[in-house]
Amino acid sequence: MKTVRKIIFGVCITVCLLVIPGCSKNNAELSEKVNNGEASRELFAMDTIMTITAYGEKSSEAVDAAAAEVKRLDDLLSTGNAKSEVSILNKNGNCLLSADTGFLLEKSLELYENTEGSFDITIYPLMKEWGFTSDKYKVPSDERINELLKNVDSSLIQWNPENRLALLPDKVEIDFGGIAKGYTSSRIMQIFKEYHVTGGIVSLGGNVQAYGRKNDRNTWKIAVENPDTSPLDGDYAGILTLTDKAVITSGGYERYFEKDGKKYHHIIDPATGKPARSGLVSVTIVSDDGTLADGLSTSLFVMGGESAKEYWKKHSAEFDFILIYEDKTVEVSEGIKDSFSSDFDYEVIGK
Ligand code: ADP
Ligand code: MG
């Protein structure tokens, strides 16, 4: 597993986040600092390093509440925790879901429909087979993949919003890994509002959501990571200057293993049961809605550039994108053309 570096920076501060290999998977406090109305905390949860920063009178309380919320959601949604609601549903095939899990299930089913199956939470048995859940990586045989693909189909999930009962047929298991961090960051925005902070920013393993403004009334500058596998030179592909948005990136470089000189990453194409190879190196989604941004970053990565752009044309009111291709092409949708800057050439995509 390689070290993943993510960079976020406000106008005056630069916060560098290092994912520390071998770090405990428990929600662990790494550091906390409070000064001059700015409170910041780093913790390890959802298999990644998170940084939560807030400004304002109640910034410290807001950051504490946000960290507690991360822990609560991790306990509910983690497939790695046998007591989580998701694990109980996967094990028993039925579960009465809490509001949060029910909401995520509904959003995931909606995305499954809208993306024609590119986003599919029933991918979990394949995540296990490839070893992404245990770090015991292997390349499964085509036979085994085809066997498991029989149970990869979100239309097999039964969900009754009236009585909140979710049912999974035998061998169907789900995983919110493609959407849970975006939901978590959007919940933190809610907490920032409740505590009337003037501004705040959260990075969940590089998935960023920004709220309000910094002390100095400036908006946020968020670096769009330049993947190691990207043909572009430099640490980041560009900078977004914005506020009140989620900026969420999916890329094959985030988690992968190598076998016989070939790289295998953790975003699986439900059509093939194998890591998606669509010509894209990364997809960044910018949206007011963190949950949607996370779900779409995964979905559009699976779809590939052409379908991603088609999808955006139908849903351009909901999000914008930055697509980085294997051949160095960078495309940015027109809604963020004024907030994006880059040293690289990029094409602005219009409707
Ligand atoms: P990251 O979590 O690294 O930021 P993503 O948001 O793209 O990146 O999520 C990847 C995770 O989503 C995988 O680890 C897995 O849990 C899940 N996943 C993989 N492929 C799919 C898919 N086609 N549909 C839905 N979820 C997926
Ligand atoms: Mg995602």
The helicity comes to 25-40%
Estimated share of beta-strand residues: 25-35%
Q: From the helix content, strand content and strand pairing, which structural class follows?
A: alpha+beta
Low-confidence stretches: 1-27
The topology string of helices and strands comes to EEEEEHHEHHHEEHEEEEEEEEEEHHEEEE
- Our count of helices gives 8
Plain-language structure description:
- It is a single chain.
- The chain has three domains: 1-77 and 182-218, no CATH class; 85-167, ApbE-like superfamily (T-fold); 243-351, Roll (T-fold).
- The protein is 27% helix and 31% strand.
- It is of the alpha+beta class and 351 residues long.
- It starts with a strand and ends with a strand.
- Strands 3-4-5-9-10-13-18-19-20-22 form a ten-stranded mixed β-sheet. Strands 2-1-11-12-21 form a five-stranded antiparallel β-sheet, with no helix packed on it. A three-stranded antiparallel β-sheet has the order 6-8-7, covered by helices on one side.
- Mean pLDDT is 89; it is low at 1-27.
List keywords for this structure.
3 domains, five-stranded antiparallel beta sheet, alpha+beta, binds magnesium ion, T-fold, 27% helix, 351 residues, globular, binds adenosine-5'-diphosphate
Summarize the structure.
The chain has 351 residues and is α+β, with helices and mostly antiparallel strands. Helices cover 27% and strands 31% of the residues.
Chart the SSEs and their pairings.
Elements: E1 5-9, E2 14-18, E3 28-35, E4 38-45, E5 48-55, H1 59-77, H2 85-92, E6 94-96, H3 99-114, H4 124-129, H5 142-149, E7 158-160, E8 165-167, H6 180-194, E9 199-204, E10 207-212, E11 220-225, E12 236-242, E13 245-251, E14 256-259, E15 262-265, E16 268-269, E17 274-275, E18 280-287, H7 290-303, H8 305-314, E19 320-325, E20 330-333, E21 340-341, E22 347-349
Parallel strand pairs: 20-22
Antiparallel strand pairs: 1-2, 1-11, 3-4, 4-5, 5-9, 6-8, 7-8, 9-10, 10-13, 11-12, 12-21, 13-18, 14-15, 16-17, 18-19, 19-20
Helix pairs in contact: 1-6, 3-7, 6-7, 7-8
The protein binds adenosine-5'-diphosphate and magnesium ion.
